[in-house]
Design brief:
By secondary structure, the chain is α/β, with parallel strands linked by helices. Helix content is about 45%, strand content about 15%. The protein has eleven helices and eight strands. It has an eight-stranded parallel β-barrel, surrounded by seven helices. It is globular, with a radius of gyration of 17 Å.
Length: about 230
């Protein structure tokens, strides 16, 4: 499987999201609906993406008791999500029920450590290990529970690939910044270029602002896809 690009529709303006999808969909297959858009429009945002012929990554990071998460997964699946996120730290029972509820219709992706967090941030909330150690710990838990994918920063991709191949665990990777983006990191700390992340073993790269805020989003997305292909 070649590394695929997911464009994040991080906006609460439906007309802007529609413009992005209309411009990018000839080249980009996948779009992400996250909290900002979902809180504003609810399941209608999901249906609008799928009705456009695009594939939906629903990134709401469910984290609750197992029964509640199982119900949320069923609702997300019915709204057309092909990939959806839960927090890996929710525990084995929650992860197993999420996978069972997703069935064959959706891929559950367990979020490991957010790309905005570093070692100091983890220590501040009582996790006495590095982001790398925590990612591996949660990746192993997810795999044990039958979760087919995880979300991790690009800096943990090679580390996870040392333990799991692509058939065992898919890696969805945010924190991607094309070389043309220069030093801009926005609010993410652990970042990497598309080519480097693809070479390390990422299956999906999630890119938002570097594409959607570019002067020419289509040209930027095409350049990222070429960079991935060249990796």
């Amino acid at each position: 499987m070649a590394t695929e690009l997911i464009v994040a529709l991080d906006t609460d303006d439906l007309s802007i999201a529609r413009a992005w999808v209309s411009q990018l969909s000839p080249t980009v297959k996948w779009f992400k609906v996250g909290l900002q858009m979902f809180v504003k429009f609810g399941p209608d945002a999901c249906r609008w993406v799928t009705d456009s012929g695009s594939r939906l990554f629903l990134d709401l990071k469910f984290h609750d008791i197992p029964n509640t998460v199982a119900g949320a997964v069923r609702s997300a699946r019915n709204a057309g999500a092909e990939i959806l996120t839960v927090h890996g730290g929710g525990g084995s029972a929650m992860l197993r029920q999420a996978v069972e509820s997703a069935g064959q219709e959706a891929i559950i992706a367990a979020v490991t450590v957010l790309t905005s967090l570093d070692t100091d941030d983890l220590h501040a909330v009582g996790v006495d290990r590095t982001p790398q150690d925590q990612v591996i710990r949660l990746a192993r838990l997810a795999h044990t529970c039958g979760v087919p994918a995880i979300v991790c920063s690009p800096h943990e991709v090679a580390l996870v690939r040392n333990s799991f191949n692509r058939e065992e665990l898919k890696l969805i990777v945010p924190g991607i910044r094309p070389r043309t983006e220069g030093a801009a990191k926005d609010d993410q700390k652990r970042i990497m270029t598309p080519a480097d992340a693809a070479r390390a073993g990422a299956d999906y790269l999630v890119v938002g602002r570097p594409i959607t805020q570019a002067a020419d989003p289509l040209r930027t997305a095409s350049a990222i896809l070429e960079e991935i292909a060249g990796a």
